[in-house]
Amino acid sequence: MAPAEVVTWAVRSGQLPLTSMASAENEVCAVRKVACPSQTWRPQKVQCGLSGAGQVPFTNMAAGVEGRGGVWMGSRADGPRTSGHVTGKMAVFPWHSRNRNYKAEFASCRLEAVPLEFGDYHPLKPITVTESKTKKVNRKGSTSSTSSSSSSSMVDPLSSVLDGTDPLSMFAATADPVALAAATDSSRRKRDRDDNSVVGSDFEPWANKRGEILARYTTTEKLSINLFMGSEKGKAGTATLAMSEKVRTRLEELDDFEEGSQKELLNLTQQDYVNRIEELNQSLKDAWASDQKVKALKIVIQCSKLLSDTSVIQFYPSKFVLITDILDTFGKLVYERIFSMCVDNRSVLPDHFSPENANDTAKETCLNWFFKIASIRELIPRFYVEASILKCNKFLSKTGISECLPRLTCMIRGIGDPLVSVYARAYLCRALLTEMMERCKKLGNNALLLNSVMSAFRAEFIATRSMDFIGMIKECDESGFPKHLLFRSLGLNLALADPPESDRLQILNEAWKVITKLKNPQDYINCAEVWVEYTCKHFTKREVNTVLADVIKHMTPDRAFEDSYPQLQLIIKKVIAHFHDFSVLFSVEKFLPFLDMFQKESVRVEVCKCIMDAFIKHQQEPTKDPVILNALLHVCKTMHDSVNALTLEDEKRMLSHLINGFIKMVSFGRDFEQQLSFYVESRSMFCNLEPVLVQLIHSVNRLAMETRKLMKGNHSRKTAAFVRACVAYCFITIPSLAGIFTRLNLYLHSGQVALANQCLSQADAFFKAAISLIPEVPKMINIDGKMRPSESFLLEFLCNFFSTLLIVPDHPEHGVLFLVRELLNVIQDYTWEDNSDEKIRIYTCVLHLLSAMSQETYLYHIDKVDSNDSLYGGDSKFLAENNKLCETVMAQILEHLKTLAKDEALKRQSSLGLSFFNSILAHGDLRNNKLNQLSVNLWHLAQRHGCADTRTMVKTLEYIKKQSKQPDMTHLTELALRLPLQTRT
Amino acid sequence: MGTAVDIKIKRANKVYHAGEVLSGVVVISSKDSVQHQGVSLTMEGTVNLQLSAKSVGVFEAFYNSVKPIQIIHSTIEMVKPGKFPSGKTEIPFEFPLRAKGNKALYETYHGVFVNIQYTLRCDMRRSLLAKDLTKTCEFIVHSAPQKGKFTPSPVDFTITPETLQNVKERALLPKFLLRGHLNSTNCVITQPLTGELVVESSEAAIRSVELQLVRVETCGCAEGYARDATEIQNIQIADGDVCRGLSVPIYMVFPRLFTCPTLETTNFKVEFEVNIVVLLHPDHLITENFPLKLCRI
């Protein structure tokens, strides 16, 4: 297509000084390059259409006058209804356009502007409280100045509830079921705080990890819960009495589980499972609150038993989290209960109490719990439940916890399943974080332990001590656990949290000294990748450059980078994330060489996408920095070149979006020629991505309009040549697009731009191209993967086109309204959908266009372009020709209305008739008798079969009566009298 | 509603030794004033012996239960007939713990065929219209620390198919080697039983390793004596196929009330044993028995 269009252009607008334009040299090249043998094909066809006047009804003026009704009407004779019949039955209605006074009409239609008094209410008025207002209020003696002004209506009724006094939170505050004195409460809070202080505030709390684990380890497999709940015998059991009977039943119950009511819930989804566990957690609390301690213990035992089941292994971590939540709840309940026993009426146990402070009852209860738990038959529940109440050892002896710890640790050896045992250890660590801390510090020089510490503790904690850690890492024994992993762990922490300012450079130096010595590229890159983030975060491009250079040096030998694309990609991502200023980024010397390491295309494109994404996100100002342009053009080119026949639509869209984002950000300021040559270059680079080409056309059009704006509409020789170059760019680019409506709209749009820039013949060429493209519009088009009828789009386009055609001046060498005629021919020949009124709707629009064209002064103009109104100056020949066209169009409409009667499509006939009536009313001169008669006929037609909507008819009639009151419209009064309203029976 | 009688023993753990004074209060609480015919408090300690159906037959076991041996018994009249005012009335009491005649105060023990139990019973007698009120409360007697030095008696053991007795088809057994030791078979009742077990090798996967605490009760009577071993508790120390060569701790707390220092009297005996039970896949059960001697120091 492209070559043909180009040649058309060249042929038809010989005066176009394409060759004389310096800036458009590329255009010329393009024209020459694409010229091909088929170049004569298109013009021939166009000429056929034009010269074959005999077959074309709308030809030039002379032919039109004599030839109307001739061949065209004759051709209709093949149809079901002869033209003679039409004219015989219905008189040929001449068209008489109403004279319009657009200014007066606009003034009468416009809403009256009412000046707004200050302080009046207006919905769009911003809520501001102004000085004067508050002063006034102050004088009145009110203290609340803001709320008494107009903004008072905007006080959010919800926010007032949120200052802590809403009924719910008040209720929660007072109705705390724990009947303990407030003193206990506060001391507990203090204690909680103290627990934190032991560990340090920068210690990563379990809660963080918990959510992470739950989100990460999920499953779609079916789960099962196996619960052996004993009967409800021991309901009244309490923990205080040591009566033999009770103890016996209790212990029996504990043993009883195997025989007891066994509940097995199979086929649970993950959500069901979580819900069940949550229910258990709740029933644990309920049982505890209702003094059913044995039941509570049973629940806990059963829950911990679930941890021995590893059947759905990927869910196990989440299961562990859920169940240990229950255990934690239990541990807390027991602890608090025993703690509350130590509180008598007067004294409160100090925060760090010693066992001597605990009273005998509390100790006895505590012992009871331990004895009870020691008799749990199975190993796993016994371990978990004991670990959960480990803290209670504090009541019994000072050294209790540290004595128990090794024993519990050894106990885990009895667990055969490695997964279960590892998690058991994890729980033990969690239950005893404080103790762990101490031990870690003492045993700090064990590599494995160090690594665990670094991955387990919170980043801030590590970061503030990073120099210590580096020291420890250096000293530690490397056997069994390589140092680079330690540095990696440290780097991960430093990426998350900042070390003290003074240490930063030293840390980097120390770490990199080790990293750079790593021989194995895999070890090296894993480590370096992590440290890049730290470097980017705290240092300048110089350091980053050094690091990148080091990476390149390590990864290039033996093409080691091939195995490390993910890490290299991460490095790029991190660098981009920290350098938002692309001029700085690209001035990092090793950045582009670094990019060259991505030699696998898919990875390369991914990296490019990242870069472009960041550019679009962070680049605020348009740029013309040659460094950025060069680099990014290269990047975009890489992306573009990855497109092939197999590329998915989505991928193409994505790439186009990124490239468009780049194109939009390039601006050479007032150097328009440079800008255009950038667009030329871009077009040749990105020719495979249609959205990019569309963007380029829009950009060039915009450039033309900018030029016009700069010159205030008066183009100099140079700028005129330049805008023509822009227009030429668009003209040769559009045919290479595939989307038919994209092309149509772009032709129209570019034509408008050409017109606005006084490139008349070029505009004509655009419009002609659009017209000759219309027959190619398929009936169905693909929109987002679905086939849809194209007619509505076509109608929309044509209406838009008509609006433009109003102001397009006729070409002196062609006939009157030659574009409209050509367009009408095309519309006539287009294969419209059967049973569709679109064609007639278009004709109605044409009627509007023609009426507008027959006005003395047109509704709108383009600055510095003389439209037909000034060209013809209301010449009678022009008007006659115009009216002839109208008549033909009207005849078409009327004929169609008749076929509708035949086809029993009465409803359509009625609505179409009414719309035609409205058109006549709006645009026709009803003082003309024939037209007047026609309108009355149409009114009847619309109502004939009771299809019309009475309300619409009433409204229409009211409108006519209202219009008749205006000067020059008095004839409408008479018309209104002739329009009866049909009452529906 | 109504009247409640409660006995509160002074010591929270309710543990007393021979020669000590058991003290506490009887609490009578009521909304209204209470008429009564007197309140008395009885302290009683008995040994109940029962013959097992296994050794003497069901009917004999049912009828022939040996007459309980009373160790201690005393009653005091706390309040003369009269009236308690509304509210809470606390009446303190004291009993010296001294055995009848030359009998010893055995330690509290809850078993199957032998039960040694000490109770306090408070009775409030009331007029015909109202029921008598009774409240019983157990207290615990620990025997005095045994004299003489406690000497640990460690035991090493090795279990292989060859060491087993009572095997039908030795050839069918999978090969295994378990080694271990108990720190002492002389145990202090307040200290856990400890030791170690190492699975050096095993062809078959291990399913579970358990410690079974067994009581051996012997009742002597006119017709002879019955000796029965029953399980007190079973504690799993290994679950699943444990790591070879890594010692699994043997650790068991002696449950209170259900154990007492090993006891040997003219009429009955209470002894304890521990079994180390190893379950192998698919269905092998290996038991190694160790008699224990419990004492209190």
From TrEMBL, chain B:
This is Vacuolar protein sorting-associated protein 26C. GO terms for cellular component: endosome. GO terms for biological process: endocytic recycling; intracellular protein transport. Belongs to the VPS26 family. Component of the commander complex that is essential for endosomal recycling of transmembrane cargos; the commander complex is composed of the CCC subcomplex and the retriever subcomplex. Component of the retriever complex, which is a heterotrimeric complex related to retromer cargo-selective complex (CSC) and essential for retromer-independent retrieval and recycling of numerous cargos such as integrin alpha-5/beta-1 (ITGA5:ITGB1). The recruitment of the retriever complex to the endosomal membrane involves CCC and WASH complexes. It is found in: Endosome. PANTHER family: VACUOLAR PROTEIN SORTING 26 RELATED. The keyword Protein transport does not apply. Keywords: Endosome. Component of the commander complex that is essential for endosomal recycling of transmembrane cargos; the commander complex is composed of the CCC subcomplex and the retriever subcomplex. Component of the heterotrimeric retriever complex consisting of VPS26C, VPS29 and VPS35L; within the complex interacts with VPS35L. Interacts with SNX17 (via C-terminus); the interaction is direct and associates SNX17 with the retriever complex. Interacts with SNX31; the interaction is direct. The lineage of its organism: Eukaryota, Metazoa, Chordata, Craniata, Vertebrata.
